[in-house]
Design a protein that fits this description.
The protein is mainly α and 72 residues long. The chain contains two helices and no strands. It has one domain.
Length: 72
């Protein structure tokens, strides 16, 4: 997965905005990357993160885990 991430980092600086938009459309305009991080909008605004930390979830509630941050 790291190889793909590194390649994507290089490509984002050389592809056209049109090509980037076509890739986003082909992927269904995802709001999160494969690591679960939010993707900026086309006008480079970060979407509001409305997730709740697992530690704040009440015992009687269910949830879908969207990302796990690595230990730093």
């Amino acid at each position: 997965m790291d190889e793909v991430h590194d390649e994507a980092e290089r490509l984002e600086h050389v592809i056209s905005e049109d090509f980037e938009a076509r890739i986003a459309a082909a992927l269904g305009h995802p709001s999160r990357d494969p690591h679960g991080e939010l993707i900026p909008t086309p006008d480079l605004q970060m979407p509001h993160d409305d997730t709740t930390p697992l530690s704040a979830l009440r015992p009687d509630r269910t949830a879908i885990i969207q990302r796990v941050k690595p230990k730093t």
